[in-house]
Amino acid sequence: MKKICLTAISALLLAGCGGDEFQDLRDFVKNAGADMRGKVEPPPEIKPYEPFSYDNSTGISDPFKPRKMELKAGLGGLNQPNFDRPKEELEEFPLDSLKMVGYLELGNVGYAVVRSSDGKLHRVKAGNYIGQNFGKITSITETEIQIREMVQDSTGDWTERDSSLQLVE
Question: Rounded distance, CA 134 to CA 90, Å?
Fold first, then answer.
């Protein structure tokens, strides 16, 4: 009999806890998604690929082919370097691969000793050419070689650029 009483009391207690206390929440959860329908817009129409031909009739150059810079008549002018003179030995090396390693003076003329990237030593003086950008040595001191280079810009004009080599200790 005790078991029946305990079961009856437990049922009554559980029934008391399950009242309408949270009925409004249950109704909200039940009805919250009733009016909602997902709206997915259709994907945009995909247009078929149309290849474009870069030819002379369009007047547009092909961006995937290398172009040579075309010099316009009259450009280059006074600053254009002399292409006909014989090249000197140090003009085959980039300027950043050359190192000034010494200075000497013979008969009131200052010379710089330059080491090229192949390990050879070269004696240069003001007026010699050096580097791959038509660099001409303008002056030499005990610690530095001053160089004036000629470089071509995107329009084909030649401009001067000053560079230097410092003595490496």
Answer: 10
